[in-house]
């Protein structure tokens, strides 16, 4: 079995763990910097070149695409998929996950519960947006923000109007969401194979680990598990991190991450997440071999198209 990990940094914890997990199965694992790939498109023929040489077609790929490189990275993923290579996460699913507004629209259609969210243009009345969102306190999120950056909590309607007017004046796209006070600055990052509870740093309602939060093991309730699975299915992601926030009406999905970091969840749960990802590939791909001439690749076709 040959598996390519599409990653720009071989020294990242997640990348190294995936290499270890694949090699422990005796597989040929290669780290490919997707920005160093180029593609050839001809009639009836698709190729990928890497550092000036044609790249042999692998059995599967694990995309670890950075948010700032989504367009180029998903173009590479799509090309591999069209070459009938199994991808842990499809190109369209990755694109959906990177667009906060689109993600919420997709999950709403699938009846996944989430905080009430309002999106409006900079010509909209800030007062109307605040009322539609249920009033202060409110959480304001810049659509392009990542890792907790670009998230602001406003505790009064006056402050909310000032911040909204300021952002709209800079032509920034914003999501306005209800604030779930009972969550206490904590959320749950769930994977199909494990989960961890993330607690925000003292005085910070954001629980992102990049913002100084901490992680502890968390056993998912039946409702949390079903919500996480429903969100992943709606997004079309085989492996992902689903961020949920506890509320009085049950778990609410905040975001679905198509390239979740493995360090926090592996260390807090002692679960071999990287190994589980390799097991997932193994269940979906049977490589060519003299003893097994039939190649089986289960590829979701809705993730391949433009």
Q: What's this model, at a glance?
A:
This protein has helices at residues 13-23, 70-82, 91-98, 100-109, 126-132, 157-169, 222-235, 263-269, 273-284; strands at 2-6, 28-32, 37-42, 45-50, 53-54, 60-63, 86-87, 117-119, 138-142, 151-154, 174-178, 186-191, 194-199, 214-217, 241-245, 252-257, 285-286, 296-297. It is α+β, with helices and mostly antiparallel strands and 306 residues long.
How are the strands of the largest sheet arranged? 14-13-12-15-16
Order of helices and strands: EHEEEEEHEHHEHEEHEEEEHEEHHEE
The name CATH uses for the topology of the largest domain is: Rossmann fold
Could you say which structural class the secondary elements and strand pairing correspond to?
A: alpha+beta
Beta content comes to: 25-35%
Strands, count = 18
Rg from Cα: 21 Å
Low-confidence stretches: 194-201, 292-306
Spatial gap, N to C terminus: 28 Å
Shape: globular
In round numbers, the mean pLDDT is 83
CATH architecture of the largest domain: 3-Layer(aba) Sandwich
Describe the structure.
The structure is a single chain. By secondary structure, the protein is α+β, with helices and mostly antiparallel strands. It folds into 3 domains: 1-88, 3-Layer(aba) Sandwich (Rossmann fold), CATH 3.40.50.20; 117-179, ATP-grasp fold, A domain (Dna Ligase, domain 1, 2-Layer Sandwich), CATH 3.30.1490; 182-269, ATP-grasp fold, B domain (D-amino Acid Aminotransferase, Chain A, domain 1). The protein has helices at residues 13-23, 70-82, 91-98, 100-109, 126-132, 157-169, 222-235, 263-269, 273-284, and strands at residues 2-6, 28-32, 37-42, 45-50, 53-54, 60-63, 86-87, 117-119, 138-142, 151-154, 174-178, 186-191, 194-199, 214-217, 241-245, 252-257, 285-286, 296-297. The strands form 5 sheets. Strands 14-13-12-15-16 form a 5-stranded antiparallel beta sheet. A 4-stranded parallel beta sheet has the order 2-1-6-7, sandwiched between helices. Strands 8-11-9-10 form a 4-stranded antiparallel beta sheet, with helices on one face. A hairpin with a 2-residue loop joins strand 12 (186-191) and strand 13. Helix 1 packs across helix 9 (273-284) and helix 2 (70-82) runs antiparallel to helix 3 (91-98). The protein is globular, with a radius of gyration of 21 Å. The two termini are 28 Å apart. Residues 194-201 and 292-306 have low confidence and may be disordered.
């Amino acid at each position: 079995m040959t598996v390519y990990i599409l990653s720009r940094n071989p020294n990242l914890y997640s990348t190294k763990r995936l290499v270890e997990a694949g090699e422990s199965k005796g597989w040929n694992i290669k780290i490919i910097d997707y920005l160093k790939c180029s593609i050839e498109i001809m009639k009836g023929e698709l190729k990928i070149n890497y550092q000036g040489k044609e790249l042999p077609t692998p059995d599967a790929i694990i995309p670890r695409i950075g948010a700032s490189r989504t367009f180029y990275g998903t173009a590479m993923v799509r090309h591999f998929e069209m070459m009938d290579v199994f991808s842990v996460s499809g190109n369209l699913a990755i694109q959906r996950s990177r667009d906060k507004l689109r993600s919420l629209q997709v999950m709403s259609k699938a009846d996944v519960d989430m905080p009430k969210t309002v999106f409006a243009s900079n010509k909209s009345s800030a007062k109307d947006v605040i009322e539609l969102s249920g009033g202060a306190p409110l959480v304001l999120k810049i659509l392009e923000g990542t890792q907790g950056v670009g998230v602001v909590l406003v505790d009064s309607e006056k402050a909310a109007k000032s911040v909204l007017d300021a952002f709209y004046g800079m032509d920034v796209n914003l999501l306005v969401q209800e604030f779930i006070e009972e969550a206490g600055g904590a959320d749950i990052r769930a994977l199909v194979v494990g989960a961890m509870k993330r607690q925000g740093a003292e005085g910070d309602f954001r629980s992102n680990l990049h913002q100084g939060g901490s992680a502890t093991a968390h056993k998912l309730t039946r409702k949390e598990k079903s919500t996480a699975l429903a969100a992943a299915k709606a997004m079309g992601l085989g492996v992902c991190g689903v961020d949920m926030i506890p509320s009085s009406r049950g778990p609410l999905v905040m975001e679905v991450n198509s390239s979740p970091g493995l360090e926090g969840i592996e260390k807090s749960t002692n679960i071999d997440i990287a190994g589980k990802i390799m097991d997932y590939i193994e269940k979906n791909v049977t490589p060519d071999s003299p003893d097994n001439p039939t190649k089986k690749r289960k590829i979701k076709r809705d993730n391949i198209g433009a």
